[in-house]
Design the sequence.
DNA sequence: CGTTGTGAAATGATTCACAGCT
DNA sequence: AGCTGTGAATCATTTCACAACG
């Protein structure tokens, strides 16, 4: 089967996991991998891996498996990380600073192209190599620097306003760290990382003696 | 229906969202809420809300809805946040520091009771009100301070070792921020927050023009 | 023989729709 | 009338199992 088909949400999440595992193996120069091996590394069944990959075409080789370098390239293209995404970070507090320091950024196709904060005391000071800007500069910079994604690292009560401003400025997607559900029109994608939910999820599992893996993520999740 | 039944994973995630919304409304003194109102606030259907809550007993009132204060108390108990969970933070880098500064902690029933790092330069220095300890103190402190949860905020390559140490020391659950799948025996719960997955998820949605809400993370999930 | 891709079956989650309570 | 709790129906995802290929 080929192309335009609905991709199940769980499949979309696993694509990132496949890519990361494959990149690791590519570094240690392995040529091919079977769905069984890839699945085992990630705690998934071989059928699951094959079905996920098959949504995007047929690039396995019966009797052989998947060619790692080829699959990495395909997955990057599918995920959209074969190009660089310029992002705007809003919120230069503790979390914002931790995010700026995160090394994985550029390596994975993302670049923080501007940093904003509402706090007058922070405006003008530097965060890594960026001068912190006032929110009033948002629209101009999003335009000038071809910014496509916004990262919200502000307290809950101000997050919706920031989201509205980002969308007005023209971003296409938002990574939200504030513990609220963002209301956005459906041309814009939102992925949320909710620390509270993760913590309570863990407490719940432990209380329940529910043992075993929990899925979370920065699950990105929920909401 | 009552009690022991399997709780669907998505339901478990939504429990946290219900609790947060209800706590907000309790603050603004509302007495009762219907499944429709609660669902609308979170982007869910009324039936979904009712079904989720019904897994844990019948505490709604036909014709009236749910008594907010009562439901909050019930949810706290269900989630296990009606008590305080002592946690050990491992990793005092940027992320660890951001986590320490996170205000929601104590308010939601969690307390960082000790901080550890492998870096000799950091050991002995203070992070908020905690002296950073060497990993060799882990077992002793977990025992002494009744620590039940571990938070892993170290680079990927060292995370599995930290997880093993935490489990040896006796923690029951781990909140993992390292971008790897932790292998643990099934008496221990793991919830992962994976920034890479969240980012790529967003890029994927945007690329696809897939629009709409994404669920991420803290999805407890995926690990 | 090992391994893929994929229909068909099984399992899981959500939505519908309605009886019954207030 | 308004609203809950819940079986039944629908929809989504995973697992099975196997024909076809290298």
Sequence:
């Amino acid at each position: 089967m080929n192309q335009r088909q609905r991709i199940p949400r769980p499949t979309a999440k696993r694509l990132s996991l496949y890519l990361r595992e494959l990149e690791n193996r590519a570094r240690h120069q392995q040529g091919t991998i079977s769905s069984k091996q890839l699945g085992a590394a990630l705690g998934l069944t071989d059928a699951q891996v094959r079905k996920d990959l098959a949504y995007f075409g047929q690039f396995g080789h019966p009797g052989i498996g998947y060619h790692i370098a080829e699959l990495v390239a395909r997955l990057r293209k599918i995920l959209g990380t074969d190009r660089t995404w310029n992002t705007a970070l809003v919120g230069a507090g503790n979390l914002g600073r931790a995010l700026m320091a995160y090394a994985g950024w550029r390596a994975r196709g993302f670049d923080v192209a501007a940093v904003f904060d509402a706090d007058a005391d922070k405006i003008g000071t530097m965060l890594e190599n960026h001068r912190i800007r006032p929110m009033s500069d948002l629209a101009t910079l999003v335009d000038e620097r071809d910014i496509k994604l916004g990262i919200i690292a502000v307290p809950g009560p101000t997050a919706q306003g920031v989201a509205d401003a980002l969308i007005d400025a023209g971003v296409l997607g938002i990574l939200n760290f504030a513990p609220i559900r963002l209301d956005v029109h459906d041309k814009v994608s939102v992925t949320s990382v909710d620390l509270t939910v993760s913590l309570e999820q863990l407490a719940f599992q432990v209380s329940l003696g529910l043992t075993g893996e929990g899925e979370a993520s920065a699950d990105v999740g929920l909401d």
About this structure: The mean pLDDT of chain A is 91. The first helix of chain A runs from residue 9 to 27. Residues 205 and 211 of chain A are 6 Å apart (CA to CA).
